[in-house]
Amino acid sequence: MAMDSTLSAIMKETMGKEARFQRKLKDEQLAAKAALMEASGMSPTVVAAPTKKTSCVLNQLDQTQGRTKNPHAHDGRPRLHDDGQQLLRYGVSAEGQGRAAYLKLESMKGGPTERFGRSVTTAQEIGWTAAAATKTYTSSPFAHRPLIQGQFYRPMGVSFSTGAL
User: What is the pTM of this model?
Assistant: First the structure.
């Protein structure tokens, strides 16, 4: 059955009603939980609404206008006490700032073994221990190498087919 505009509007209205009902049910459950905690003598926990994050465009605009201070050190290496989120949102990776600095900071903090006491998955175990093995790798003597292009191809100079410049 094809969805026409009427059926689409009906589905949208139904989903909206379901979302409102779920929100109402969740609010009632939170109120009941707070009342139960208050009755037992515990102070009810207040959950603050999550703060809205600024977009990357606004972050870039603040940087160009000088409204935010540069969180990066002058030598370009992130420090362990730096705030990762500020490093991530300031600068460009091509200059060693932004995402590049954030990832470098995260790798300086250590892998999953230092964070969790052990590797959680096999992929983490292989990925964080494979760096030493890749440093000693040499290519096969039978590997394809572009020798002809490096020796015979010249972008300027004498043409081999005609002999003229």
Answer: 0.46
Give the contacts of 80 (CB within 8 A, at least 6 positions apart): 105, 108, 109
50: region left, alpha or beta (phi > 0 left; psi from -120 to 50 alpha): beta
pLDDT at 16: 93
- The Cβ of residue 10 has, within 10 Å, a number of other Cβ atoms equal to 11
Inter-residue contact 87 to 78 (CB < 8 Å) = yes
Task: Give exposure, 122-149, as e/b (b: 16+ Cβ within 10 Å).
Answer: eebeeeeeeeeeeeeeeeeeeeeeeeee
pLDDT in tens, 14-27: 999 999 999 999 99
